[in-house]
Design a protein that fits this description.
- The chain has 357 residues and is an alpha/beta fold.
- It has 3 domains: 44 residues, 434 Repressor (Amino-terminal Domain) (Orthogonal Bundle), CATH 1.10.260; 126 residues, Rossmann fold, CATH 3.40.50.2300; 162 residues, Rossmann fold (3-Layer(aba) Sandwich), CATH 3.40.50.
- The strands form 2 sheets. It has a 7-stranded mixed β-sheet, with helices on both faces.
- The longest helix has 16 residues.
């Protein structure tokens, strides 16, 4: 690649004006297909590459969006980060990753704009951040929130309906004839996603006329494989033998299945298991995992588009966007003949948008 190739060079090669080349490079609509093809041939022949940094600087921007996540080691957040990066790349933006560890002090630091000089916008998935931490936030950098914490503040917020998703998962298990459904992953301390999923678990069991027994709820300090295994072991050691488990996320479900196997219990014959997040790992185990599958690609795309709309002054009202999800049935509940593309009777799609703030 010859970095010295300029718009002027491309224009001379194509026999058009510099403005026409600029219109093609910036993908403006008012260029005829024939002219676009002509200019593109010259771009390809000369190896021209636009200087994205200079382009952003001319607009008073850096071309960087920050994405702050609580657990980069969590497969869900890794896949979500990939979705955000893919979406940003399509808009010629770079993504700067921040790891907050779910700690309030770090989430405050990120949300208050300690990187404000180098980023154009911030996408934040908070765990412990409180509404009061955002009230006096500088407004020079647009903020988009991900996840289930509802702050009732004027920021775009993208999330799935966790209560509805949890109810779908439990309804699936009950529909298979399971009557003792455990929940593992009720986080010790505040965690709104965990609270919402426990609420959905409880509501659906009661709607089915079954007991929402707190003895079948296992709280944990973390949400990894080991936490799921420990939670499953505690329930079994207490003398309880549930015939189904709904786990806060897929790593916990996989940890639980390992303990069930070690105790001589078969999945799903003895205990059916449903996870949450539909990460790649759950699709390749000895027993593939039924899971609630948020549309991570859509969440990433909506987050990036929300930031860019704010930067362009195109989004006057803050929005709360409900991203879609579905419940994907696999061997951990359906045995060795899973449905091709989801669980019968469990839709889970919710795409309603509403103004928020």
């Amino acid at each position: 690649m010859d970095v010295r190739v300029s718009l002027k060079d491309v224009a001379a090669h194509a026999g058009v004006s510099i403005k026409t080349v600029s219109n093609v490079v910036n993908n403006y609509q008012h260029v005829t297909p024939a002219m676009r093809e002509r200019v593109q041939r010259s771009i390809d022949a000369l190896g021209y590459r636009p200087n994205l940094a200079a382009r952003h600087l001319r607009k008073g921007r850096t071309g960087i969006i920050a994405l702050a996540l609580p657990e980069l080691g969590n497969p869900y957040f890794a896949e979500l980060a990939a979705a955000v990066i893919d979406a940003a790349t399509r808009h010629e933006y770079i993504v700067l990753l921040d790891h907050t560890g779910g700690r309030r002090e770090q989430e405050i630091l990120v949300s208050q704009g300690f990187r404000a000089r180098v980023i154009d916008g911030l996408i934040l998935s908070p765990i412990e951040l409180e509404a009061e931490d955002l009230r006096d936030r500088p407004e020079n950098v647009p903020l988009v929130l991900l996840g289930e914490r509802d702050y009732d503040l004027p920021y775009d917020h993208i999330a799935i309906d966790n209560v509805a998703a949890a109810r779908d998962a439990v309804r699936h298990l009950v529909g298979l004839g399971r009557r003792e459904v455990a929940f593992i992953g009720a986080r010790r301390g505040r965690s709104e996603p965990a609270q919402l999923r426990v609420r959905g678990w409880r509501e659906e069991l009661r709607a089915a006329g079954l007991s929402a027994d707190d003895g079948l709820v296992a709280a944990t300090d973390g949400w990894g494989h080991a936490d799921g295994a420990a939670a499953m072991a505690r329930i079994l050691d207490s003398g309880r033998r549930p015939d189904a488990v709904f786990a806060y996320n897929d790593p916990m479900a996989i940890g639980a299945m390992r303990v069930l196997h070690a105790r001589g219990l078969r999945v799903p014959e003895d205990v059916a298991v449903v996870g949450f997040d539909d990460v790649v790992e759950g699709r390749f185990g000895a027993v593939t995992l039924t899971s609630v599958s948020p549309d991570k690609e859509a969440i990433g795309r909506l987050a990036v588009e929300s930031v860019l709309a704010r930067l362009g002054g195109q989004a006057p009202e803050p929005r709360r966007v409900r991203a879609e999800y579905r419940l994907v049935g696999r061997e951990s509940t359906l045995g060795h003949h899973p449905a091709d593309d989801g669980v019968n009777g469990a839709s889970g799609a919710n795409s309603a948008d509403s103004a928020h703030g």
